Amino acid sequence: MPRSLSITVWCLFIVSATSYANEPYQIAVQPENLSTMFTQLYGANGLIVDSLAVLSSGDTHSAHFNSDFQTEFTQFSTALTSRLAAVPLPSPASGFTYEFDSSLGVFNRTTQSFGPILAERAETIGGRRFSFGFTYQHFNFDTLEGNDLGNIPAVFTHDNAELRGGREDVVTTVNSITAQISQFTFFLTYGLTDRLDVSIAAPFMSNDLQIRSHATVQRIGTQSDDIHFFREADDGIGEQRVFNASGSASGIGDLTVRLKGNFWRTGGLSFGLDMRVPTGDEQNLLGVGAAGVKPFIIWSTHFEGFAPHVNAGYQWNGKTILAGDPETGEAEKLPDQAFITAGADFGVGSRLTFVFDILGNYFIDTPRLQRSEFQALDGASVFPNIGFVTDSFLVLNGAVGCKINVAGEVLLDFNLLFNLNDNGLQDKVTPLIGMEYSF
What pTM was computed for the model? Predict the structure, then answer.
């Protein structure tokens, strides 16, 4: 090996080894389930640092530190499941709608377009007709209240910090949260009559959740590094530690049964009712863990290939441990939501329909993350922090997509859902692909 190449290789090895040596000691925690990941991230007793300080009893002590991140960030589960509950159910109504012509004894199509994807139109499928299909959506949540989920700060304070002295020390953390959800939804619609449809939608969920917390001891009230520290792997004393937790779960989500009744012959006004059955495992965030009822109204009309539509309703939710305490099983009411969706679909020729929608969900009295600054007791040190407030807010999304008639009465659906504001838990872009067939 040439001398210059040998020196380069050794330099790279030394730099790599030094970088590895400087990496904080990492601990991986396996939570019982996804809903308790935040409370179990730092172990069963929370965030504790070591100390060689001797108490009056002659013993050393381990100091416990507290933060809203651990005690209240379980509200992330509420935010996540509330967000999923707010995502509009891909319309189980058929892209083909018919009306029976008694004079000719045949069914005739009532619209040229194939209808919306994430909204409903007033037309019903037609008596004794079936439609079934599936959709696939993938969520990769990026922000919570406009805050990057890869950089959430949180400050932990010492027990009885008001007594000052060494208790003025804090532990600052930088937290990264990865939340990815894949949702397959299978649906079936049957026309009970020409004016009344019944549908059932069954989602299959696959969840992946990861948390990484980089903790650093900030010496505000102490000078010695042996009073508050993290024990290293080699039994040394360190100021930093990285905590990791991850988990995944798959299974059936919450079933939804939908009734839709239309009282006008062409378009007009329809009434719908969604009934959510909590069949998903809320401990692993596969369902919200609460029954729900959502009455809504549907207005639509059509002018040849152009068909505007508006949906509006209110979602009542029951109690769930995700809004309470997953650790103890105490349940609280999941926040209610009001929603409105407005858009249109355009039939282009006989085989293609373009769709766009604006979707608004108003969350009522819901926990919200709030960015703040932590002022240390020394009056000089300031660190970024978070807290939680209860508030109502509007989540606004847009959607664009298309339906393609590939053969007979088979449709392929494509859609992109994207955020229009920073409120709540958001995914920048959520793709959807689906298929539906009517007969």
Answer: 0.84
